[in-house]
Amino acid sequence: MPARTALIYSPEFSAYTYGDHHPFQVQRFRLAYDLIAAYGLDRLPNSTIHPGGEIDEELLLSFHAPAYLARMREFNDSAGSRADFLYGLGDSENPVFPGFYDWARRSTAATVEAARLVTEEGYATAFNLAGGWHHAHRARASGFSYLNDAVIAINTLLAKGLRVAYLDLDAHHGDGVQEAYYDTDRVLTISIHESGIYFFPGTGFEDEIGTGRGRGYSVNVPLLAHVDDALFMKAFDEVAYPLIAAFDPDVLVTQLGADTFRTDPLTRLEITTHSYGYILRKLKALRIPWVAMGGGGYDLMNVARAWTLAWAVMNGEELSPRLPALFVTMIRSLGYPHNSLLDAMHWAEEDERNRALDAVEKSIATIRKRIFPVIIGPYG
Fold first, then answer.
1. Residue 378 has pLDDT above 80, yes or no
2. How far apart are CA 49 and CA 111, in angstroms?
3. E runs forming strands in the chain
4. Which part of the chain is the Histone deacetylase domain (predicted)?
5. Which of 83, 115, 288, 300 suits 126 as a labelling partner, its CA being 20 to 30 A distant?
6. Exposed, middle or buried, 133 (CB in 10 Å: 0-12/13-18/19+)?
């Protein structure tokens, strides 16, 4: 029997706004869904579309501080401007807008539903387009993230006695998720991201390997600017893939941010759909129950193309590299010139690539020395 998959999507995901000039534009969710539908991927025989639902605040307390949630509740229905910088609320990065807490809870509920579907309903994969808020801390909003949906969902899996591997492919380090599981061996966290030497959130270095029982279960591959497709695949193939396979989790949770793409306005990596699709196909081949979330991405067409490709891979569908004609007509009215779903493999300029390659190889060597003996064994 073909594996069942679930896409978690609701028009409500795009019903709020961070502000017209904020880098995070919620229209990305609608655009991604429209492209998925244009390819007919919303009507696959073994797939279903789920709206997500609601979430009890008690579940949020499995990670977040009561006072932090109380302040968000208070601000949620405020008509005027509100801010509490102790909790990271109300600045230009994490604005307080009407219904922001309702919206964050809806996004979190969708990831929790994805986790439930793969563990209780027999789905092979569940993908929440509106998930991936990996910067939210226990008592502080950060990096456009108010609630850490990945942590809340993973906590539901841990409560069932399951072991989880979390892989973060966003250009930014998954600091909030790492924070939550830094001292446990029940969750293996792996983040491949642009280096915090010069890039938000300033964390995610090779020496952040966990503490206590969690020592060796926190893995970071910081990438220098201009890492291209081949180097991104190298980091995945030589670090993430063997560690996930050796850890052999009950559930795989991934954050699939598209801000690694070379035309993203906020980042300096040079990834394309080539390496992105390659990694997704390798993850699917693991045949581990898979909870996927969206994440970053500040070029909306990159986001739509990336997540449409992801959903196609999850369902074993091959897509035309040309965008559907009706979709092209629609995006032309929005000012987008795109015609193609897929990019050619990209190589960075030689000098920049050589510096990035040296850094990747040093990171891999460090991880092999410090992490592999813990996860794979002394001869791994």
1. no
2. 13
3. 5-8, 47-50, 125-128, 164-168, 187-194, 218-223, 251-255, 290-293
4. 22-313
5. 300
6. buried
Q: Which structure tokens are listed for 273?
A: 């759909």
Is residue 248 in some structural domain? yes
Phi, psi of 28, deg, nearest 5? -55, -35
Alpha carbon of 244 to those of 160, 176, 206, 218, 254: distances in Å? Answer: 20, 20, 17, 12, 11
Instruction: Tell me the per-residue pLDDT of 59-112, one tens digit each, with 9 for 90 and over.
Output: 999 999 999 999 999 999 887 789 999 999 999 999 999 999 999 999 999 999
Give me 213's structure tokens.
């029982």
Q: What six digits make up the tokens of 147? A: 């609630």
CA distances from 67 to 60, 61, 74, 94, 113 (A): 12, 10, 10, 17, 25
Structure token pair of residue 57: 């605040």
CATH of the domain at 183: 3.40.800.20
Which distant-in-sequence residues (6+ apart) come within 8 Å of 159 by Cβ?
Answer: none
18 within a domain of the structure (yes/no): no
pLDDT tens for each residue of 311-333: 999 999 999 999 999 999 999 99
Strand partners, 49: 7
Instruction: List, in order, residues 6 or more apart from 95 with CB less than 8 Å away.
Output: 18, 19, 22
- Measuring CA to CA, how many Å separate 207 from each of 203, 244, 272, 279, 368? 10, 19, 28, 25, 12
Q: What would the two tokens of residue 237 be?
A: 């193939």
Q: Rounded distance, CA 207 to CA 216, Å?
A: 10
Domain interval for residue 236:
5-12+23-376
| pTM attached to this predicted model | 0.97
The C-alpha atoms of residue 229 and residue 251 are separated, in whole angstroms, by: 27
- Please report whether residue 94 resides in a domain: yes
Q: Are 279 and 241 in contact (CB under 8 A)?
A: no
Q: Which residues are catalytic?
A: 135
Flag whether 303 is in a domain: yes
* Tokens linked to 163: 């072991």
Total domains, the chain: 1
For position 274, what pLDDT does the model report?
98
3-state secondary structure of 179: helix
Q: How far apart are CA 65 and CA 71, in angstroms?
A: 10
